[in-house]
Amino acid sequence: MTKQNEEELSAITRQVQHMGGLVELALDRSLVALLERDPVIAREVIDSDGEVDELENQIEEHCLEYLALRQPVARDLRLVCGVLKINSDLERMADLAVNVAERAEVLSRVPPLPFRPDVSRLAATAKRMLRDSLDALVRLDSVLAWRTWKADVEADKLYRELIGQAIQFMREHPDRIGDVMHLTGALRNLERLADHATNVAEDVIFVVQGRIVRHHMQELDEALAKSGEHP
Amino acid sequence: MTKQNEEELSAITRQVQHMGGLVELALDRSLVALLERDPVIAREVIDSDGEVDELENQIEEHCLEYLALRQPVARDLRLVCGVLKINSDLERMADLAVNVAERAEVLSRVPPLPFRPDVSRLAATAKRMLRDSLDALVRLDSVLAWRTWKADVEADKLYRELIGQAIQFMREHPDRIGDVMHLTGALRNLERLADHATNVAEDVIFVVQGRIVRHHMQELDEALAKSGEHP
Questions:
Q1: Nearest of A224, A217, A219 to residue A203 by alpha carbon
Q2: Does the predicted TM-score (pTM) go above 0.90?
């Protein structure tokens, strides 16, 4: 790889990292809006989405330019194609954070719910997965990507618990069902954020190892557990 | 474009069409399972997902091979990169159909709900959007892609109506909240299917016109409405 190619690829990766940082910030702020019932912060998150959208377009253009001008092969080609897909995932994650903020905005206008599920824990799991998946991309670290992928089990379990609690609360307070549905909507968006982080992790493993592990992670994971090997 | 390149590109597009056909079939069958409370059909849909997964991997490998060996530029490059993203969208659409089938399986085991929202209409909208977006890809037809994108307004409106009805029903039947939550889950998955079809449509417009319209569709649409022009 020439020095110029290398520099361009790191510029692309840095843009992706920057986008990840924006998503993380949106997620943090949407959670504050939700927990503190703050419509102003919610609105800020909603209005700031344009920055991520523009960045997504820039990254895509950057990738296509690189493909057209540098015509990479092997790992560099996989990296650029991986970034094209990771870019979409990050943009959808930002949309999910915005959706959490929209739910927060609605909920700030109704009387406080006496039901307080542990949203922060689910959000923290999603955020850690987002950060780990992008660290894995920057460091081309398939072991970290693998760990990120595995953490989704935890997010799913937590989500199911919280939904169970919400159903119980709705049964006891049918008059608040409409409001709780906004809260479960926020929970679902956090769980989907974690799902997107697993997509990123799968793409990182493909970039590093050159094999598409998607749809085969479960069996590979079981085989590794038996053999005691690392991915 | 050489004849060989052309043939390879149509082979890739045909694979995408085939995958779209599988998604459509899964969607149809999951709806039958849901409406007819048929756990056997639901299970068939769930078990058939592996075929789409394999096809996704094949299409991705095919695209990367094409990029590495043919080093396309301009529209061919956009087409291959567009397919890489459309491929992911289609696989997620198949997952959503599977999720509808999973909800159908659960609901087939509980007493029938007296609540019968118009799921078929939402499913029909999502299916038409899926089909139109892939027809637009095959014919490189940005007008059809544009129409697909616009149809999402209808899907969103329908979804909101149905959720409103579900909330009303839950208020009156708190003992069935857990079951209705599975039904609203199925509705949400259909609405997300339509969302993915708009992503495909945006990618088709990019392939054809060479401009990233994503995040600018609304303003472009308004400008076009004013000028009376076609996209």
A1: A217
A2: yes
Please give the residue of chain B at the shortest CA–CA distance from A57: B212
**Could you report the predicted ipTM of this complex, rounded to two decimals?**
0.91
Range of the domain at B152: 3-227
Domain CATH for B29: 1.20.58.220
Count of domains for chain A: 1
Per-residue pLDDT of chain B (231 residues; tens, 9 = 90+): 688 999 999 999 999 999 999 999 999 999 999 999 999 999 999 999 999 999 999 999 999 999 999 999 999 999 999 999 999 999 999 999 999 999 999 999 999 999 999 999 999 999 999 999 999 999 999 999 999 999 999 999 999 999 999 999 999 999 999 999 999 999 999 999 999 999 999 999 999 998 777 777 777 777 667 766 555
Q: Please give, rounded to a whole number of angstroms, the shortest distance from the CA of B57 to a CA of chain A.
A: 7
Contact predicate A111/A178, CB 8 Å:
no
Distances (CA, A) of A62 to A152, B87, B169, B207: 31, 21, 50, 16
* Nearest-by-CA chain B residue for A213: B57
